[in-house]
Amino acid sequence: MDQDAGAGLLNPYAQSKIGNDTIFSWWARYQNAIENGADAVNGTIGALLEDDGSLAINAVVDEAIRAAPPVEIAAYAPLKGMPGYLDLAKTLALGDYRQELEEIGLSMTATATPGGSGALFLAASNFANRGEKVVLRDRHWGPYKGFLSGCNLEPETYPLLPKNPSIEHPYVDIEGLKSSLERLCSVQDKVMIWLNDPAHNPTGLSLTAAGRAAVLDAVMESASRHENVGHTLLIDAAYHLYAEEPHGWGQTILDAMNDGWPWTENLLITFAISLSKSHTIYGLRTGALVSIHPDSAVTEKIATVMGVTGRQTWSAAPRVAQFSVSQLHASSDGGAAWSAERDRLQELLVERRNHFVESCEKLKVPVNPTHDGFFAWLEHEDPNRIAEACAEQEVYLVPLTGGVRIGLCAIPLEKIPRVAQALSNALK
Fold it and tell me: Do residues 360 and 423 touch, judged by C-beta distance below 8 A?
């Protein structure tokens, strides 16, 4: 490919967009192997598959969408989202803790987005100054960098796991987070932290209650000491409804408030919500950005800004899923039916993860701690070599920065030991 092609037409940032998405490239390799008759294993795609390889679909959600009146399919949604859906988004973010948080005076707002990716874009576009940095763990979903660079932002990373794990919170490097915050607060007047938790992509890591509290304390302390620096903590909750503690952050925030935690004016907590995984409607592109703050004037301003940003970017988020899912959850019977099917799908993931960890332990494959959601992770300095060695055994995984992502969401239970064996062979 001529790297200078279109130079007279494309701006410099557009010309920097090269290559293919790593995840989809490896998924294509798996598909080619299947087409050529190989008995291949798919650990690439980030979508939940049944054990027979078909896409797992929550039948209750599917039925609700197919029952939508034609006008709810064809019409525009309100620019900020349908009221019933925006109300639901707050509950999806905070669960049963929402009511108590509102009762103690917290204000909340939500904006409908095209998937969780739309929520991330809203945050990147509005909560950080152009040309500055956003705090991430050093192992994160690859497209984060694209969202940031598209808004002229860069990542500031700290380690996924601490070198000397705390007994209280072994799964978060609090000192690394504090160092990043302190460094950025000395040169920026806005600091945003993106934290994918629980069920972290790409590792399946989930923070403990003590870990969540430690993160919240670190951000709060930084905001208190740097009162002229705006702090935004974004919880990327794309997979949270498949976690053992789906609304752990709601509980952590409520506990902190009840303990007298001083929520300063320069601190915002916001959640990126996605229905893609929780309601198995990936292609309908439905999500939300939910923001909470003690001052209603702040959340009202955020609602306006996000609505205008959406209008100037994608106009309005798709309507049909907003309508159907909010109608589904509006009745106790509908919510219970969705929960029962979600529980079945979650059990697929639990069984696969347990089997994978056990298989790796038997073969002494040193996979990272992994708890919830769609993925597991093997830390390695040469992930491409490991992935290629597995591909030679017709096991297809995804090499990313610092390691290999294992898509448990796509791997049939019976093929889990084969994946562990392929990793073991690759490591040798």
Answer: yes
DSSP letters along 221-233, please?
HHHHH-TTSEEEE
Q: What is the dihedral of CA 104, 291, 109, 372, to 10 degrees?
A: -90
pLDDT digits (tens, 9 = 90+) for 360-406: 999 999 999 999 999 999 999 999 999 999 999 999 999 999 999 99
If asked whether residues 49 and 119 sit together in one domain, one would say no
Q: Per the domain annotation, does 245 fall within a domain?
A: yes
Query: 398: closest CA among 29, 18, 1, 16?
Result: 29
Q: Would residue 5 count as lying in a domain? A: no
Residue 156 near residue 184, CB atoms below 8 Å: yes
Nearest partner of 122 among 95, 89, 96, judged by Cα: 89
Nearest alpha-carbon partner for 252 in 202, 197, 204, 201:
197
370: number of CA atoms within 13 Å, CB side? 30
- Of 249, 283, 318, which one is at a domain's C-terminal end? 318
pLDDT tens, residue by residue, 163-177: 988 889 999 999 999
Q: Identify the helix (H) or strand (E) that includes residue 70.
A: helix 70-74
**Chain-wide mean pLDDT for the chain?**
96
pLDDT at 19: 65
Note the pLDDT tens digit of each residue in 199-209: 999 999 999 99
Residue 132 belongs to what domain range? 77-318
